Fold 1-phosphofructokinase.
Amino acid sequence: MILTVTPNPSLDRAYEVPALTRGEVVRATGERMDPGGKGVNVSRAVAAAGVRTLAVLPLGGATGALVARLLDEQGIDVAPVQVTGATRANISVAEPDGTLTKINAPGPALTPAESAALLDTVAAHSAAADWIACCGSLPRGLAPSWYADVVRRSHAAGARIALDTCGPALLAALPGRPDVVKPNATELAEAVGRPLATLGDVLKAADELRERGARAVLASLGADGQLLVDDTGTYLGRARVDLVRSNVGAGDSSLAGFLVAGGAGPAALASAVAHGAAAVQLPGSAMPTPADLAPGAVTVTDEVPLDLALTEPAA
């Protein structure tokens, strides 16, 4: 069972438009509404893969009630923590050339009692989980050390931890030795405090996070694929993508693919890449099913071209 923790969930509204022109009335050609937040997306992708999942998240107001209903309709078990503030709603607008504009609301501030209740709810279900995926930004009211507390408690319960966050929350959790961290290139550059221009730069940064405590690093590099660095070696995974419709939730789908395939080694990386590639070809934050995957389009190698320049260097 894969338990997900989403401290700042959302209701995600996605629109497809012919073009986005500032100051004009834009008529959408497609729309969808999904429960959102990085951990929620991981649960949705895990459930689509036929694996049991439980989503732990704070919910409040009418938006929170709608998120809970949508998750229930998708067959996802939820362990909600009721909070006073209303769950946020996010908007994404996708153009035909793949350009995506996102507007993310800040979300409610959690009280100390709500923060403690969320931590206790995770702890109450930790013993039943094979993996605990802690994902996304921390809402107002949660200290940067909150994820570090989750890592410490969950390891004590025997669960493995996958951490997908950034900034102070990521750095504070590293000494607890999360089993895998999943930054993108920008988050990785921020964590080490320097720009990343090549795959060699990414590898050095990943090694630095491992020196600080991460047992493995799964770095998402956009069009350049994903780099996995763990005790067994260094691997680069790539996939051919013919059309990008939306990258909302693609990284979350990748993490789900990695975890359902065991969460270690090149086979799990191949699954991560296949899930991420499938997700970007779907509308909004739709999560891929097994029928959407194209494992034959994925390549994984341990011969990493360290001097290869990143398509999108991270400052």
